[in-house]
Amino acid sequence: MVGMTTQVLLDTDTSPDATDSTGNDSPRMFHYVRKSKIAESAVLGSLVVALCGETFPVTRAPKPGSPVCPECKKIYESLPPGGDS
What we know:
Shape: globular
Oligomer: single chain
Distance between the termini: 12 Å
Protein name: DUF3039 domain-containing protein
Number of strands: 4
Organism: Pseudonocardia thermophila
Radius of gyration: 13 Å
Helix content: 10-25%
Largest sheet: 2 strands, antiparallel
Region (Disordered): 1-27
Order of helices and strands: EEHEEH
Pfam family, one: DUF3039
């Protein structure tokens, strides 16, 4: 997977417990996905696959300090550094 780039994206869980204790529709965590698939998913509504295997459509971008899926983070940190190509 040389040269692969990723970005953290939202896991759109639609289950009833997907809201926080204040009733806000906040995501529970964000996932790492291939950067090249983000625009396609946002425009066409296609599903993306996170490093951890979760699949979901792109609906939001993470804000700094957003919670990140621990499994995605572990996988991402174990990948060799890629280029911006």
